[in-house]
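Allow me, if you will, to draw on your knowledge of protein folds for a short while. I am sending you one protein, given as its amino acid sequence and as whole-number tokens for its backbone shapes. Kindly check, if you would, that the fold set down in the tokens agrees with what the sequence suggests. The record follows directly beneath this note:
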Amino acid sequence: MLIAVVTSIFLIGLLDRVTRVGRIDILVMRGRQKLFSIRDLLRDGVIIDCPTKNNWMFDFLDTTLTRAADTLHHFTAYRIIGFTVTEADGEHQNAVNFFKREIELPENSRYKAIAHAYERCMGEFLRDRHRWGAVLGRSAADITKFASDVRIKMRDKEEQAIMADPEMSTLDRFCPAKR
């Protein structure tokens, strides 16, 4: 009888592990599909418009989307939190600020839409990957206004971290402010 109980517990543990890994694998495949769709929109826009100005922005977004799709399996909220804490006032800040100024220019509206789609896709991926984060974030925002303000400030820092993370982003490589 003891063997049956131990075997059942072991099999339930294996089933739980398989379902968690399967859920993350499905999220990664969906995330890659979204990222490649965004990249295709970027490339289609360049083919149609043939821009000559701001090639660095196209190169940055194109390589960042490709790199993000390639490393999506390792992308976690813990990584973003760690990068946000260690690089809060670091060397990437100038490049992020330059990118934000450039993306607001009227001639870069297409690139702005692509960058927002990228940030939204990565945010959705993190929310779906870490279900506890969505629950804690929602309940904390409902508790007080202070929690909501903190969440908004952290979201801004997380967006900066997503754009400047050296493993997923190529901002340092292509941004003219870093050259």
